[in-house]
Structures are given as structure tokens and as C-alpha cells.
Amino acid sequence: xxxxxSVRSSRPGHRSTTMGYMPITDMPWWRWRSNVRSGLHMLSxxxxxxxxxxxxxxxxxxxxxxxxxxxxxxxxDNWSADKYLGTIFRDSQETSLVDVAVLRxxxxxxxxxxxxxxxxxxxxxxWPEAVRAAREAxxxxxxxxxxDPDQPPRSLEQLALLTQAV
Length: 166
Description:
By secondary structure, the chain is mainly α. Helices cover 52% and strands 0% of the residues.
């Protein structure tokens, strides 16, 4: 489920000289950061995963939705977070932590499949390491934004309100 109001695509064909193949008018950097943080937050919280995803609580999406928010608009599945240093990400520690988290989560997604049930992700032998990597990235980004990383993840509705055009 896409949580963006943009009607333009960030796919090739709409070129920008400042962001590679992604038009900078697609979505402001703060929306990208909010979506990345939302994905990392959900992927980094095992209690949330048990109580919401595994329990089937609506309003939060599933693992695939969290990965989508993490990589879709930013294309972090195609290139390093370093590309966004100074825009989405504040420092090289953020970019390094995000890159590790993305790689670990995507490796599992490719092994179990994007439409696998939540239980397949949580049972994967590498899931705890992916959760740890996502947690490290989430804590760094939340801390740099002056927010408490231990607050529960926001629902998709809350995220949509947070990222809507002003």
C-alpha cells in the first residue's frame, strides 16, 4: 500500500539532474524520511510484529508494506543510502545503518517471497539479525530527529496525516 499523495512516478522516464533518475518533485525529502523511518520502526520492533502483524491487527500493513515504505520511493533496493546524504539522511552513520538494514530485510524477502505470511518472516533464521539492524537504524534516525525510538510505531493512517502536503 503506497502512503503517498504524489501522482508522479519515481520510475525511470522522469529524470532529474540532482537525484539520478528520481525527480525531486515526486515527494519532499521529509516525506521520504518519514516513510523510511516508518518501515524501519515496524521492522525493528518484535513486540509490534507479534501483537500487530502476527495477530492481524489492521491499520499497520504487513512486512511487505513496511519494506515498500523503506525502499520504494528511495530506491534503496537499487543503490546506497549514501546517495541521499544531506537530504533524507543527516550523516554517514545513518546511511551505513540503513544500508545494512535494507540488505538484511531484502535478503529475507527474496528468500521467503513478498507475499509470504508474516509467520514465515518471523520464523526465518536471519530475522533476528534483520530486526537488530533495523533497530539500530531506527534508533539513530529517531534520535537525530529528537524523537523517542521506543514509542510504538504509527499506524498507516497516522503516517498519511504526518506526510500529507501542507
